[in-house]
Here is the input.
Amino acid sequence: MDINGSEVAWRFGAGNPSLEAASALSIRAIVHRLYGCVDRSNPRKLAPLGHGDPSPFACFRAAAPAEEAVAAAAVSGKYNSYPTAAGLTDACSAVAAYLSRYLPYELSTGDIVLTAGCNHGIEIMMAVLATPGANVLLPRPGYPLYEARAALGGLEFRHYNLLPEKGWEVDIEGVEALADENTVAIVTVNPNNPCGSVYSYEHLAKIAETARKLGMMVISDEIYEHCAFGSKPFVPMGVFGEIAPVVTLGGISKRWMVPGWRLGWIAMTDPKGILRKKKIFEAIIIYRGISVDPAAIVQGAIPQIIANTDNAFFTNAMNIMREAAEICYQKLKGTECITCPHKPEGSMFVMVKLDMSYFEGIVDDIDFCTKLAKEESVVICPGSGLGMENWLRVTFAVDPPLLEDGLERLKSFCLRHAKPQEAGDSVMC
Here is the structure.
């Protein structure tokens, strides 16, 4: 009431329908709710198999030279000011040189825009492409932040399928059927979150040729770059930049095991300069100018982080990840009601399918994950949040003993909730 005792007709409220639509697509919101279901009185250690953050575990501790570089940048007093819109010049130059190691051409400092993590890069690209009538092609299953950011900006998105029977490769024919004259980009994720697949050189070439045929750019999410431990090596999509223009999204959060440092990049891996001619780079800079900056201290440290991190750190991290992936695969393979169509070869995840007919009293994957969190203190991401109902996304970026224990609890949960007449039946990988 106002001073005269009458009701005030407040004119504001949180009723933005675009925000509500975007929130419904947030994987973080789903996983956060699952953590809220955990019984805190349970004496067993929480097994966090729902999101890819290995940093809390000592076996995945960041490289000492990287930590020392950030500390040195902080105490130097040189990085207390606002950085430029694209990022500090030395930082952009270091990232350009780093990415160029794996490309058949050289990137320049001007090809790089630094972001506050890869998620910020996704936000920027979905905003830049949100012109009237445009649409983008997104993978299913995929990383839901693309859908959320597209929905928030009013950008239409269409889903193409990844094929589990083909190692989660892109359904090229499906892509061609989905695209029309308003399709501006296709998003690929390699190594893949959530499937754990790594695309071959030949398959990436097919994607690039398809993008050229359809006149669209490729947005290549490579936040898990070099996180490959199977038979196929990581190949950057930018290798095919001569075929079709590629915007590469990356960062240090996964390879360096420091997601909290929030340093990512957008790279124009486009030797023919098509993205500049189409003013995409200019639009990215404009958006960065009205958005947030990655911390100047971390930007200042990037040249030393890249230069001083020994290859032994990466090799050791991948050896542990390979061990964890093998534990995950074997434990899931031995769990009734779960089918694993493809052994993980990269990233920090694997997708597995639930046989819902096996259970009594569990109606879908969300119900499964909710009860699992409450009864076993194991958090796993339901596939529904990724466009795959009655599937699960499991992360193995966890200390191996805890991972093994968490998956044993998962198996016990499945057995406890099995229909009595089907408790002895198995669906194996």
The mean pLDDT is 94. The radius of gyration is 23 Å. The first strand starts at residue 47 and ends at 49. The chain is about 40% helix and 15% strand.
